[in-house]
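[agent] plan:
  1. take the single chain provided in the ticket
  2. run structure prediction with default settings
  3. attach structure tokens to the ticket
  4. add a short note for the reviewer (M.T.)
[agent] executing step 1
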Amino acid sequence: MCIPFHPVNPVNNKTLKISGMKVRLFVAVEIPEEIRKKLGEFQDELKKANADVGWVAPENLHITLKFIGSLDEEKIDEVVRIIKDSAAGTKLFDLNYMGVGAFPTEKNPRIVYADVIDSDGILTKIHEKLNNQLVALGVKHEDRKFEAHLTVGRIKTRKNVKRLMEILNSYNGFHFGLAQVTRIVLMKSDLLQKGPIYTKLHTIDLVSL
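[agent] step 2 finished; step 3 output follows
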């Protein structure tokens, strides 16, 4: 069953004006509450390992399409134009949230993630366009292969990592759900001591069938 995602507080495709000289930005795909809840339950099981992990708050879980980094505020409108161009003509599509893993390897893990299956490679195509076009704004080009995923935790030390990987492997092939992507969002990230705060700046709706 495919879960259509309808956000509670849409931004109506208008850029949220913010103050300040520099802003930390990224382009993302949001995930629906039903899948977010299952991922939170997955985190709860992993926490039983009592490993030294910085867990991503369930409300902050997302798929990063392109990390932009710190950029001059006046360039936001141009970023939005590039996102629109990169997503132009893209129809609504489904993503399958299934499987888990660790980056870079399970023997030396630093990131725990849930896998995202993009059968038609639509996310990759959009990422490649963003990656190439944002260079004109001074954004670093990413040379590594794009792999859609959801970061659920960042491992800080080796404490109880073996037990953490055992629990992680028990979720191999676990199906968190199937969901439809209806839009792409530009997000601002404020890094605070208690954790990052994400603010939605702009939404780009995909083409309805």
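[agent] step 4 note for reviewer: The domain at 2-6+24-205 is CATH 3.90.1140.10 (Cyclic Phosphodiesterase; Chain: A,).
[agent] ticket updated
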